[in-house]
Amino acid sequence: MQRDNELEGSISSLCQSTYLQLLVLSNNNFTGEIPYCLGESSRGLRSLNLGNNGFSGAIPSSIRFLTGLTDLELSNNGVLGEPLLPLETCTMLSYVHLAENRFTGSIPHWIGDNLPALIYLRLRSNMFSGQIRTEFAKLQSLQILDLASNNFSGAIPTNIGNLSGMASSQATIFFLHLIDLQVYSKGQDMYYRQSLDLMNSLNLSSNSLVGDITEGIRDLASLGSLNLSRNCLTRKIPWSIEGLALIESLDLSMNPP
Question: Which helix (H) or strand (E) holds 37?
């Protein structure tokens, strides 16, 4: 673990570390592409944190070999391409943080079937496009979903209320391997670490979503934060939102009249 050390250069030499299980290099000055050999040689890797560096290029397709990977943190880099495609075989993922990059593409149709353990998904501040798939509703463990500041369009799926991880009246406690959690709520970034009782949140703000705010929202009874601002949604607040008894932060602003 070498975080917050102002290290720089390439990380290709790590490809010889065939027994790596935890790799945390966040908050440094590493540059260049994430080497293909990393996924090929370190197949036992369970936690990969390269956040807050200067990486560029695309996520190597060799990530598909990391079938035991549970945590992936690549936020705040300059990585591009379609990052979710190599993750199709990473079926144990519970934490994916890819915010603040140059990623493009759409949400793959297999996301609900292939990532059943997903608890935290943050894709904000990229260039993703397309519709928010109904397959998201299959992610029964999902508690934090942040798709803000992208180019998503279409309507909010009517079956979004099937996200049972956000519907449970009892908050879930889970452990993430030394990875910082970041949830944008109440106008500020809030950080959590390790084993915590997290506030369930749904952030779809700053996209091009249209239509009504679906009644399915009412089933997400344990939501603590809901942000649908800066879209093209109908401004009428559905009665169902009144049922969100645990809501602490609600932002529906900047939708047209």
Answer: helix 36-41
Distance CA 153, CA 118 (A): 23
> Do the Cβ atoms of 238 and 213 come closer than 8 Å?
yes
Question: What's the predicted TM-score (pTM) here?
Answer: 0.88
**Cβ distance 110 to 84 under 8 Å?**
no
Least confident of 7-21, 139-153, 157-171, 192-206: 192-206
- Residues of the chain with pLDDT > 70: what percent? 83
CATH number, residue 46: 3.80.10.10
Strand partners, 72: 48, 96
Task: State how far the Cα of 113 lies from the Cα of 178, in Å rounded to an integer.
Answer: 27
pLDDT tops 60 at residue 4:
no
Domain count, the chain: 1
Helix (H) or strand (E) holding 112: helix 111-114
* pLDDT at position 163: 93
Edge-first strand listing for the sheet containing 29-33: 8-9, 29-33, 54-56
In a 13 Å sphere around the CA of 22, the CA atoms on its Cβ side amount to 8
